[in-house]
Design a protein that fits this description.
With about 450 residues, the chain is an alpha/beta fold. The chain contains 16 helices and 14 strands.
């Protein structure tokens, strides 16, 4: 039976060509967009000037026509009558149409002058309407820039530069704000108004924007646009401008991610599909995955456990859970729904109904699922007590930290020197020795040697 495997290989020379050509094409598109915006702005200005000059000309020309051709008119009345007509006030001057009795204003006016008034009104409506439209556009643009002027200032140093403000980018920005991290966002497209004033923001082409964000003094650059090649290109541009700034690149393709990570070790390349796969695999164990993050090339999961009968965690001390399975307990709540304890003590013992939240990777979750704990490799040798009351207190401390019964601990303390009959993890054993030392009990660590019958 033949097995076929498809391996995606990248021709890196072709990749660099694509990067260079893609960058040139993007720069060309940005320049054309800037040119178009500039042309549009100046074109609007020219249209406004033409319309304004035309309206002023018609205003003066109409005033002169009425002075010369309308009996009994003066310069003031002709001046105001012309502007009223230009603003669409033909009906205000001549009133309604009456076939039997002509309007009073038209009785002393020749037909051609009345037709001229109508043409003046229609022309004024057109040109003044264009001026109104341009004025409205200018006011809206001014309002947009007015609100933009209230954006927070761009940080000067130790900040995060976030490039790509899609849904993922906006979520990253929200998390960084929760962590009180200074940041500045870069987007090549307009954003919704709700997001504009939340962070310092630059809406421009990426090449120009990188020169405005104090990149040399930044802590890191996070690139999360929707295009893998664009993310790589932006990261390369950022590295060229500031080699000491850490780059975090988002990708979708696992093969692309692996190749880029090998070629550019200075960057941290995160594949969203690979992270999603780990979350689905972890959720398959039946636990509640609350969140996840990437740390030191590993995906760390935030997992919630509700202890039930038959669980591999039931009855264990948190020290045994942490060092035996390689997880970090960060929250504990007893089955009685007592107050939540953050970073609970190692001697806390789990029981049915308890709630526990830990930080773990996928390997740790598999070990918990199978109940495969790391071996305990250390023992505690207790030599002597320096005070009589230390016998009672030392026995209590031994029972709490090691998890052995209080009877076993008291028997040991009354028969010194002696060795704790249960093996411990190194961190447990070190903690026990320190606690006993404070109680004036001399103890030391020794490697665990399993008895062979």
């Amino acid at each position: 039976m033949k097995q076929f495997a498809t391996v995606r290989k990248y021709n890196w020379q072709q990749l660099w060509q694509e990067i260079v050509l893609g960058r040139a094409w993007n720069n060309f598109k940005y320049k054309m967009a800037d040119l178009s915006r500039t042309f549009s702005r100046y074109q609007s200005l020219r249209v406004a000037i033409i319309c304004g000059v035309t309206v002023l000309f018609l205003w003066g020309f109409g005033t002169i026509i009425y002075i010369l051709n309308y009996p009994g008119s003066n310069i003031i009345e002709a001046f105001y009558a012309t502007i009223v007509l230009l603003l669409g006030g033909y009906g205000d001057i001549f009133g309604g149409v009456n076939f039997k009795t002509p309007p009073e204003a038209a009785q002393n006016m020749s037909g051609w002058l009345r037709l001229f008034s109508l043409v003046l009104t229609l022309t004024g409506i057109g040109f003044v309407g264009v001026l109104y439209a341009l004025l409205t556009d200018t006011l809206l643009s001014s309002r947009f820039h007015f609100f933009n002027s209230y954006q927070p200032s761009i940080p000067q140093k130790d900040h995060v530069v976030l490039i790509g403000l899609n849904r993922v980018g906006q979520r990253v920005a929200a998390l960084l704000q929760e962590f009180k991290q200074p940041l500045v966002g870069i987007s090549s497209t307009a954003l919704n108004a709700d997001f504009i004033n939340k962070i310092p923001l630059i809406i421009d082409n990426i090449t120009d924007a990188l020169g405005k964000v104090n990149l040399a003094n930044s802590k890191s650059v996070v690139v999360v646009t929707d295009d893998d090649m664009e993310n790589l290109e932006i990261a390369l541009m950022a590295y060229a401008k500031s080699p000491t700034t850490r780059a975090i690149i988002r990708t979708y393709d696992q093969y692309f991610r692996d190749n880029v990570a090998r070629l550019f070790p200075y960057a941290q390349v995160i594949c969203t599909s690979a992270i999603s796969a780990e979350v689905f695999a972890a959720a398959a164990f039946g636990e509640n995955i609350l969140s996840l993050f990437n740390f030191d090339t590993q995906t760390i999961l935030v997992v919630e456990y509700m202890i039930e009968a038959g669980d591999t965690l039931n009855g264990l001390l948190l020290a045994e859970v942490a060092y035996g399975y390689g997880v970090v307990p960060i929250l504990y709540q007893s089955f009685k729904r007592s107050p939540v304890k953050l970073m609970p003590a190692d001697h806390t013992q789990l029981s049915i109904g308890d709630r526990l939240i830990v930080l773990a990777n996928s390997n740790s979750l598999q070990r918990i699922e199978r109940g495969e704990m790391f071996p305990r490799t250390w023992q505690v040798q207790i030599e002597k007590v320096l005070a009589q009351d230390a016998i009672f207190d030392g026995a209590n401390e031994i029972s709490i930290i090691s998890g052995c019964s209080i009877g076993t601990a008291r028997e040991l303390m009354h028969n010194l020197p002696g060795q704790l009959p249960v093996a411990l993890y190194k961190q447990q054993a070190l903690l026990l020795v320190r606690r006993l030392s404070k109680l004036r009990v001399t103890a030391r660590l020794k490697p665990f040697v399993q008895d062979i019958d």
